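In keeping with the milestone schedule agreed at the kick-off meeting, the structural modelling team has produced records for the first pair of proteins. Each record is given below as a sequence line and a structure-token line. The laboratory manager (R.T.) confirmed that both were archived under the project's standard naming scheme.
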Amino acid sequence: MHGEPVCVGDSEAIGIHDLAHPQYGDAPVLEPGDVPVFWACGVTPQAAVMASKPEFAITHAPGHMLVTDVRDVTYMV
């Protein structure tokens, strides 16, 4: 679960200056009338962990999120 988006619309508001050239992954294909929506992503903390080189860290791989037996409804607000 990612929760609510961190930004809707203006990517400049969160420091993304060019949607056609993302730091990670493929560029989005935007159709006329589309509004970009941005969620927090696990790649950002992974980059921080890789840069800081801690002795030990647990994270996930893109497309392989943490799996538990706790149901989503437990986290609903």
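The second protein of the pair:
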Amino acid sequence: MAVILYTTPTCTYCHAAKRFFEEHGVEYVEVDVSRDPQKAQELIEKSGQTGVPVIEIDGEIIVGFDRKRIARALGLD
């Protein structure tokens, strides 16, 4: 299962998402969009959003830290 977390260092909900993944043993790739303009553009193209977190789970885009939707997409519910 491919999990990508688009984040910035100061984002509180991004930190919550990271804790959630770590608590559930979910491997993920963190992409800091504040440091990579190309990844920031990728984020906008995928989600239509400029805010973070945006989480991609096997191609499904989840905007924000929606715990229930994330758990469902990961098969944790």
